[in-house]
Write a structure and sequence with these properties.
6 helices; mainly alpha; 134 residues; 6% strand
Length: 134
Amino acid sequence: MVDARGVPLSLVVTGANLHDCKGLQPVLAGVRIRDPRPAKAKHDHLCADRGYDYPFARQLVVARGYTPHIRARGEEQKARRGRRRARRWVVEACHSWLNRFRKILVRFEKTLAGALGLLELACAIICWRQVADV
């Protein structure tokens, strides 16, 4: 999960054979940042692709206090004709930044803890670089 600039907020490692919507609960639970804005001024939106277009996924998003913007199946093709584009480029930007760390590009670690530790270190470096640029 990333913020509007592509800075990582939550990271969960799952198997490649697990569907995206099955990992939504741990990703939402992994966000540890407190928003300094008052609750009335908060408008948290969560954009997701059609892999999360399930009723239980929408309920999880709403239960966590987000306004869901989940593209329904077939809606993305209609939007390509219009002006509104998908905002998944911020996630792709984060993936690109992670790919610059050659050690984690291909997973050679034998344990999940080792791989997760390297990914968390890379995410911390990305966060530090983004805050330093501001």
